[in-house]
Amino acid sequence: MAQFDLDGFLPYQLAVAARRVSEAFAARYRNEFGISIPEWRVVAHLSQERAVSVREIHRRVDMDKSKVSRAATRLEERGYVAKRTDPRDGRLVELTLTEKGREMMNVLAPIALAYQSEVLGRLGADATAFQGALETLLTENHTPHAEVGGGGRDD
Amino acid sequence: MAQFDLDGFLPYQLAVAARRVSEAFAARYRNEFGISIPEWRVVAHLSQERAVSVREIHRRVDMDKSKVSRAATRLEERGYVAKRTDPRDGRLVELTLTEKGREMMNVLAPIALAYQSEVLGRLGADATAFQGALETLLTENHTPHAEVGGGGRDD
DNA sequence: GGGCAATCATTGCAGGTGAAACAATCGCCG
DNA sequence: CGGCGATTGTTTCACCTGCAATGATTGCCC
Fold first, then answer.
1. Closest-CA residue to A27 (of B142, B98, B147)
2. Do residues B83 and B95 lie in contact, with contact meaning Cβ atoms separated by under 8 Å?
3. In this structure, which of A136, B10, B12, B22 has its CB flanked by the most CB atoms within 10 Å?
4. What are phi and psi of A85, to 5 degrees?
């Protein structure tokens, strides 16, 4: 029968590596601010743009529409984000960081950058090529996405 | 306030890339055999070892114990895997590929390898360093983390 | 041998997730 | 101007997930 070495299989390796890297970082902001990964993504994105709709985040960040919506709701409940209907278009919801949200990003941004440097440092000479490879994978023509049930994600 | 470029953040890039690469491959075996990612991992691992316990897979593959257990149950229901109690140790469950399961792997293994080659091909000159970097991230001493609830997964 | 902690697989539970249905709103075309 | 398809955000639904509790079994130490 076909022998197959899962440990050496690229999609699997990539999934495990991503999970570890993400989890190690997520543990930091989860403990300190009680936010999850989707919430982190929303807040981080909001730190760039002034006021953004759910749709905007859904398109620019790799997240389902409902995922963004729920993350925004949780962030509002905790006081990190303010939601209001866009006065120009009643269908849009305008998301903005509150003062509390900005303070959180002021703490998290340096931590995030330091963690990124730490990871790149571990990669040593491969770091540059690694980043280049990631860019390649990300800018590639996107597969028309289909998703299946529950939480699982990778490989 | 702290500006933060999520698009250029390594853990985020890694998570998105992993998701895309995995999803593109998962779509193939999902359509053809109706199995999910955890199920694929179990079957792929079983193609190497003859008879393995749930615990064994849990340790060698990056999956929760209950996730392995449920994947094995689903695979058994669909006839790809046989479960029986280990005669030497009544606590262990011995998982084996059925003939149907082996046939599936005979189809999937070449597809998996072809897909892997395709991805590496896209990376071009960065491919080798990319694989090296992944190995580094995977073999690294795992940071001892505190763990906390919530569903989230990556970056 | 007999009790008892440890190990293993499963399951209950709380909660997150994607897809699809839904309600509200907008833009367009006649 | 008025209807109607399209867009947007939320919610429903079915299901998956991780963790902790559970039940069963083993190995160890006295």
1. B147
2. yes
3. B12
4. -70, 135
Contact (CB, 8 A) for B68 and B58? yes
Q: Report residue B94 as tokens.
A: 């011995």
How far apart (Å, rounded) are the C-alpha atoms in residues A148 and A104?
33
CA angle B16/B17/B22 to nearest 5° reads 100
Q: What is the pLDDT of residues A17-51, one digit of tens each?
A: 999 999 999 999 999 999 999 999 999 999 998 88
Does A144 contact chain B (CB < 8 Å)?
A: no
A64: amino acid identity, one letter: D
pLDDT digits (tens, 9 = 90+) for A101-154: 999 999 999 999 999 999 999 999 999 999 999 999 998 754 443 333 334 344
Instruction: State in Å, rounded, how far the first CA of chain A is from the last one.
Output: 22
B106–chain A Cβ distance below 8 A for any pair: yes
Chain B residue whose CA is closest to A63 = B16
Tell me the pTM: 0.89
**B97 strand-pairing partners:** B81
3-state secondary structure (DSSP) of residue A83: strand
